[in-house]
Amino acid sequence: MGPREWHTYAPGSFVGRLRAPEREALFRLGTTRELTAGRHLLVEGRTDGHVEVIRRGYVKVTTLVGGVSRLLAIRLAGDIVGEFAAITGQGRSATVTTCGPVVSTVVGRVAFLRFIDAHPRAASQVTATVGERLRWANARRSEFSAFPVHVRLARVLSDIATSCGERADDGVHIAVELNQAELAALVGAAEDTVQRALRMLRDLGVIGTGYRHITVRNLAALRGLADR
Fold first, then answer.
1. What integer pLDDT is reported at residue 144 of this predicted model?
2. List of residues 6+ apart from 76 with CB closer than 8 A
3. Is residue 98 packed enough to be buried (19+ CB in 10 Å), middle (13-18) or exposed (0-12)?
4. For the chain, how big is the Rg over CA atoms in Å?
5. pLDDT digits (tens, 9 = 90+) for 66-102
6. Which residues, including other chains, have CB under 8 Å from residue 210's CB and lie 6 or more apart?
7. pLDDT (tens digit, 9 = 90+) per residue, 190-227?
8. Does residue 1 have a pLDDT over 70?
9. pTM
């Protein structure tokens, strides 16, 4: 993959914030491969220590709660996953699954630790990435008691449309398939409550829905709801 690839990384992502020599040094340490949908990059509970650098596509981060898979986050091109287990040596805290074609570079734990030791600026970006994810998770939890479900849903959909959206004639298509159970996990609500919130947003004309598919018809209006 050539230099043009850098333009595909999500703004503010781990790889997007690295300098070209740091990126090249990191990628030289790993093995890059193309994956199909439904492949597990990391599995919750396992003690392997490698990291995965997402170079193309999207992945879902999930965890088991009472035997039920719950969606925690979506990661994009330029994101790194598995860094916490690599640094701490603890088991995997979540499962990471491809949701469509994905290109990823796998870097072994020892090689990754040597990389961040030799590149202090890259190490600081790893720290920043972990901190931002914790801040995002804390913000979502604080919203559970502060806002009604349709506002929480508007906030989540606005974030996802901004990061995973593909512009089309009828609006912004969210490129990642999402079901009601996954949306319920993201906003901390029951599925039937999320179903009613989706209906409300459809009635307001800000989204359209199909089977596991969401189109944001009016992103400005959705953001207006999210800001309330």
1. 81
2. 10, 13, 54, 58, 163, 164
3. buried
4. 18
5. 888 999 999 999 999 999 999 999 999 999 999 999 9
6. none
7. 999 999 999 999 999 999 998 888 999 999 999 998 88
8. no
9. 0.88
